[in-house]
Amino acid sequence: MGSEHLSNDVRRLRFENGQITQQQLADRVGVTRQTIIAIEAGNYAPSLPLAFRIARTFGVPIEEVFRYDE
Amino acid sequence: MSKFQKSAWFNLGFLTIGSLFALLCFYWAAGRIEEGFNYINVILFLLMLCFIVPVVYIIGQKKSYEACFDEREKMINQRATSFSLWSLLIVLYLTCFVPFVAFGGGNIIKVVYLPVIFIFTVLTAQLIKSIAIIVQCTLEEKNG
């Protein structure tokens, strides 16, 4: 339980999907740019609905975007 | 800076100026209050009401505005709210028990201090909430 971490590939997927900006992704999933920044930096673990919305935006399964590291 | 941070800064500025103004007005008025029922007391009561009602209205407006915040901002807001409530309890405890320790249980406190305690505790809670939001956002930006 001590060293759990949720890592993600949001930044990489943004660049692979037409280099969309943080603001554009934020608008598409309905959050602020600061939230996308926090998610990319690993400072904030999004809720399941938001995680699914982000994965759906990139057209990939959720486990391709977020990984649970123990 | 996001709307969330801007609203926290606005809240902080508004409440700082408001609390200073309220305490100054009260300090000025308290010196003119006579004992017992008096028309000055009634006027003062109405003036305080004129101050408190807009403050409550603005806080209420902000609550409905907060519905537009996203999930991360709501989480920061909840954390700040619980922090401010704990601070409120500590401030109330200190306000009530420090005079008790300093002056002893058999002493008498002037009634004029009761509204001051009310204004002070409510504004302290709001100020601490704003500061907690600003600090959390700043720390996130630094770490990001």
Question: What keywords describe this structure?
Answer:
heterodimer, A: 70 residues, mainly alpha, 5 helices, B: 144 residues, 4 helices, globular
Give the C-alpha Rg of chain A. 11 Å
Oligomer: heterodimer
Strand content of chain B: under 5%
Taken in chain order, the helices and strands of chain A follow as EHHHHHE
* Percent in helix of chain A: 40-55%
Distance between the termini of chain B: 14 Å
Q: Runs of chain A with pLDDT <50, length 5+?
A: none
Give unreliable regions of chain B as ranges. none
Mean pLDDT across residues of chain B: 79
Distance between the termini of chain A: 8 Å
Radius of gyration of chain B: 18 Å
Largest sheet of chain B: none
Structural class of chain B: mainly alpha
| Secondary-structure content class of chain A | mainly alpha
Number of strands of chain A: 2
Number of helices of chain B: 4
- Tell me which protein chains meet in the greatest interface and how many residues each side has: A-B, 15 and 12 residues
Architecture overview:
The complex is a heterodimer of chains A (70) and B (144). By secondary structure, chain A is mainly alpha-helical. Chain A contains five helices and two strands. In chain A, strands 1-2 form a two-stranded antiparallel ribbon. In chain A, helix 2 packs across helix 3. Chain A is globular. Chain A starts with a strand and ends with a strand. By secondary structure, chain B is mostly helical. The radius of gyration of chain B is 18 Å and the shape is globular. The chains are: A mainly alpha (70), B mainly alpha (144). Chains A and B meet through helix 3 of A and helix 3 and helix 4 of B.
